[in-house]
Specification:
By secondary structure, this protein is α+β, with helices and mostly antiparallel strands. The protein is about 20% helix and about 40% strand. The radius of gyration is 21 Å and the shape is elongated. The protein starts with a helix and ends with a helix.
Length: about 120
């Protein structure tokens, strides 16, 4: 009986110790431009993650006034990031970057962040 209880206890402890790894989705660690920042027109948008993003399911898009803004192809950047070049100089206003990718667990996640392009920021 004691042996069976120890066996069950061992299984429960193992399950509890490995559960966080099973549910560890990737998360955003930083963005460029920074979320909610007022910046000069950026030459690229970049998102860093806690894990290496899966490029085959990854996407970045840029919107201004709910209209798509042309950006380059999404590539893997350094330090677990996705990056896309911005083709034309962005006009002043509010922009939203939407991202999609998957991490080590294969779950596809989406998110977004906003920033402002300001002529005043360009003069700094």
């Amino acid at each position: 009986m004691v042996r069976a209880q120890m066996w069950i206890f061992g299984i429960v402890v193992t399950a509890l110790l490995t559960a966080p790894a099973l549910f560890a989705h990737l998360a955003v660690t930083k963005t460029m431009p920074e979320a909610d920042a007022s910046v000069a027109p950026p030459s690229a948008v970049q998102v860093w993650f806690t894990q290496s993003p899966e490029l085959s399911v990854s996407a970045l898009s840029l919107k201004h006034d709910n209209m798509a803004v042309a950006i380059g192809d999404v590539t893997a950047g350094e330090d677990n990031s996705l990056v896309a070049e911005v083709g034309d100089t962005l006009a002043s206003g509010s922009y939203t970057v939407e991202w999609r990718t998957a991490g080590d667990d294969g779950h596809v996640l989406r998110g977004e962040f906003a920033f402002q392009v300001s002529d005043a920021a360009a003069d700094r």
